[in-house]
Write a structure and sequence with these properties.
The complex is a heterodimer of chains A (308) and B (226).
Chain A lengths: L7 E5 L6 H8 L11 E2 L2 E2 L5 H8 L2 E5 L10 H11 L4 H14 L15 H13 L5 E5 L7 H18 L2 E6 L2 H7 L2 E6 L2 E7 H6 L4 H10 L6 H5 L4 E8 L7 H6 L5 E12 L2 E11 L2 H13 L3 E4 L1
Parallel strand pairs in A: 1-6, 1-7, 4-5, 5-6
Antiparallel strand pairs in A: 2-3, 7-8, 9-11, 9-12, 10-11
Chain B lengths: L14 H36 L8 H16 L2 H7 L1 H8 L4 H26 L3 H9 L4 H12 L1 H21 L7 H11 L4 H29 L3
The complex binds adenosine-5'-diphosphate and magnesium ion (MG).
Chain lengths: 308, 226
């Protein structure tokens, strides 16, 4: 499995599937029994303990339960990795100020973790993980202990960090919503095995493995109503729009010149990371030849059309 | 001669001697506490690190150290004191007086304190240790900057309990002429039936324990962040 530089790569799986184990293999908190781990152009599995400690500074990590030093202030928590890297007092304090600003915690610098909300604690975690300008950020269920609104603000921050600093983000989660909001690519893990992997949009619209389908169903607003679909007499189509097409009146334009009528039976229009997409199940009612010509027009416009 | 029947008039109490004994007790307690903290911290940290699923997991080292600690803890102080007399003599040149009681006090209190240290370190969140490892911390960094720091309230409570225990041990060391308030209580209060001296010395010991516990509690509260 390879994660590209600069991308946000998500790993999704049910609890106990082995997500944390896989993520912890990346910085060798967990030693894999076989295989190699390479970050950038350094093979971590071949390093001495000392060298590994140095390489780990290039890999930031944040956690579900934040794992902050409870006896240290926000400032000292963020300073911790810098002190480990033996920066001078002046450099440490300068860098901590920058980081506090980045995660918008300037007013909370002298508080202790117990005085912060979950979202604020995770911001401290993020600042601490970014302190040594890592190339990679590992996120172990970083939003799973947070409410939906805070989750969104943390995801926005991660997206921002990825865009501004170009840091590769590898995150694991059991929430499809997280994958849909910020990931470029996704891998699905089940019982310690990667069962599906690809562009988020692709995996989302065409899930193949049963586990993937479960996750996709989590965020689909309605389960496919098989009963209802079976009772229809016209041609049933699943149409998928991606990108700007989503907002065009394509279906209307396609049927207008013909006598075909349509009914929308089910549909989603949403957004994945920055890309809008839509998926509709429609019934076309008309003569076979007219229906075929509508389908041809839709495909011409760039839609994916599937008979069901 | 005074006695309980006649009421207590403290006629036998020679205050300068009491103050000197109080000083001796304080000195024995403080000096042995310093050594106990030093050795106990080291042994406690080693116990913790070598225990199962910890950074230096070493079942044999842990087993041996743990056994020694248990043995020392199961010998009553008074017997331990007599047992190690030759060692005491070797270190301080005497088995009597204030100096003579410091080695047995340290030997008795160190295993006790080491166990308390081990227990406090176990309370440190595993996730925090892991986070430090992920940031490239060495084992020494983790001991110094994570374990000892995160467990500070627990360690302060452990020091308090140990200090109080040491006060009662110093009183016992009076039996072999260790000096201090215990010695006084034993010589005058018990052997010469001077109940008033007994009451004054016991009263001072109670005050000392109260002060130690209160100061300890205040420190623990001051350093708690949860
Ligand atoms: N590839 C694997 N091979 C064997 N055991 C594994 C593998 N991945 C994970 N496990 C085991 O499965 C359990 C759950 O793994 P974990 O990574 O904590 O799951 P998750 O984070 O997805 O909830 C752990 O006890 C781990 O040792
Ligand atoms: Mg997990």
């Amino acid at each position: 499995m390879t994660v590209q530089k600069g991308e946000i790569f998500g790993i999704i799986g049910h609890s106990g599937a082995g997500k944390s184990t896989l993520l912890r293999c990346v910085n060798l908190l967990e030693k894999p029994t076989s295989g190699t781990v390479t970050v950038g152009d350094v093979e971590l599995t071949g390093l001495s303990e000392r060298q590994l400690q140095n390489q780990r500074r290039r890999i930031g990590m944040i956690f579900q339960h934040f794992n902050l030093l409870s006896m240290s202030t926000v400032r000292d928590n963020i300073a911790f990795p810098l002190v480990l890297a033996k920066l001078s007092k002046f450099e440490v304090s300068k860098r901590v100020d920058e980081l506090l600003k980045l995660v918008q915690l300037e007013q909370h610098a002298d508080k202790y973790p117990a005085q912060l909300s979950g979202g604020q604690k995770q911001r401290v975690g993020i600042a601490r993980a970014l302190a040594n300008n890592p190339d990679v950020l590992l996120c172990d269920e970083a939003t799973s202990a947070l409410d939906p609104q805070t989750t969104n603000s943390i995801l926005a921050l991660l997206l921002d960090i990825n865009a501004k600093l170009g840091i590769t983000i590898l995150l694991i989660t059991h929430e499809m919503n997280v994958i849909r909001s910020i990931c470029d690519r996704v891998a699905v893990i089940d019982q310690g095995e990667i069962v599906e992997m690809g562009e988020v949009l692709h995996v989302f619209l065409k899930p193949e493995h049963p586990v993937t389908r479960d996750f996709v169903a989590q965020v689909a607003d309605s389960g496919a109503n098989g009963q209802l679909l079976h009772q229809r007499t016209g041609r049933l189509l699943r149409m998928t729009y991606i990108g700007d097409l989503t907002y065009e009146p394509i279906l209307y334009n396609a049927v207008k010149p013909t006598g075909v009528q349509f009914a929308i039976l089910q549909g989603t229009v949403s957004r994945m990371k920055q890309t809008p997409y839509g998926q509709l199940i429609v019934e076309l009612i008309g003569s076979d030849s007219e229906v075929e010509s509508v389908i041809a027009v839709l495909r011409d416009e760039g839609l994916e059309v599937e008979s069901i | 001669m005074s006695g309980i029947g006649k009421g207590i008039d403290f006629e036998n109490v020679r205050w300068p001697e009491i103050w000197e004994a109080t000083n001796d007790t304080l000195f024995m307690m403080a000096a042995s506490l310093v050594f106990t903290i030093l050795f106990g911290l080291i042994i406690g940290v080693i116990l913790f690190l070598t225990s199962r699923r910890q950074l230096l997991q070493q079942p044999i080292v842990y087993g041996v150290l743990s056994l020694i600690v248990n043995i020392l803890r199961s010998v009553p102080f008074i017997i331990l004191m007599i047992m190690i007399m030759p060692v005491t003599k070797l270190i301080t040149g005497t088995t009597l007086g204030v100096e003579g009681s410091i080695p047995p006090l340290v030997v008795a209190a160190t295993p006790f304190f080491a166990r308390l240290v081990e227990t406090s370190l176990r309370e440190v969140d595993r996730g925090v240790i892991e986070a430090a490892q992920a940031m490239g911390a060495s084992k020494w960094d983790i001991v110094r900057r994570v374990l000892l720091r995160e467990s500070r309230p627990g360690l302060l409570a452990a020091v308090t309990i140990t200090a109080v225990t040491l006060v009662s041990y110093t009183a016992m060391s009076g039996v072999i002429g260790g000096g201090g308030l215990g010695d006084l209580a034993l010589r005058y209060g018990y052997q010469r039936f001077q109940t008033d001296v007994m009451i004054v010395t016991v009263g001072l010991l109670i005050v000392l324990v109260q002060v130690l516990q209160t100061v300890g509690d205040i420190l623990v509260r001051r350093f708690s962040r949860k």
